[in-house]
Amino acid sequence: MKEREDRNFLKVVAKTFRVIEVIAQHPEGIQLGELSRKCAGQPKATIFRILHTLKELGYVQQDERSSAYRLTHQVEWLGRSESRETLKRVVRPYLERLRAQFEQTVALAVLDDDQLLYIEILDGLRSIRMNATVNTYAPLHCTSLGKAILSQLSPEERTRLLSRLPLAKLTPNTITSVPPLERHLAEVRSQGYAIDDEETEEGARCVGAAICGHQGKPVAAVSVSGPLSFLPPERIPELAREIKKVCRSISESIGAQGRGSDASGSRGPARS
Hints:
alpha+beta, 2 domains, two-stranded antiparallel sheet
């Protein structure tokens, strides 16, 4: 890294971006020592402090077994406005198809920091409307969208998120403890979809699955939501099958690699 005679040039920012660039070139992970060497021989202590900061901000994760560092999905969304608009354009026809088929509210949401952000919602064709609106937030631990995304994160990312999340009890059905939530997420991961069974709003049921992008990382999720009378238990298998099919098609269209997308945002209670 060349020295610059510019007092407005912040070296630590330049070093940070160099660290990100080098890690991005090693999707399989990179050790601290090698990272230090590839960053113009910067001291390990300096690189470690940068890595620690990036980990705390959620942009870097460290493998517990190998100690290697990798970038998280959050880096992919730094250009989030353009990326989200592109995603919405790709997903819109699929949402319209699901709404026409089931006549219920369909939603598209992404992970934003440690919450779920709704970026597209099509109201159901029936008179009853759900409470979520575009550009509002919802919790991850009790929405079908949030659980679908959580289930597809790496164990390190999921642990980091769950350690920071307030697992608020919104209804008697809400899971508010990490161990049972982890067991539930394992089931979600295995079956490929998540159900919000009156966990955010009594009288409402939602089914969602994750959209996965590069290397199988979850980039968003799609759900169908409605009153219990319109989404009875016997309709769940058909609903889940169609949502999974839609998410798999979307994942393929945006270039998913690695595992598929069979699995599966006002702050405060939102539904889906």
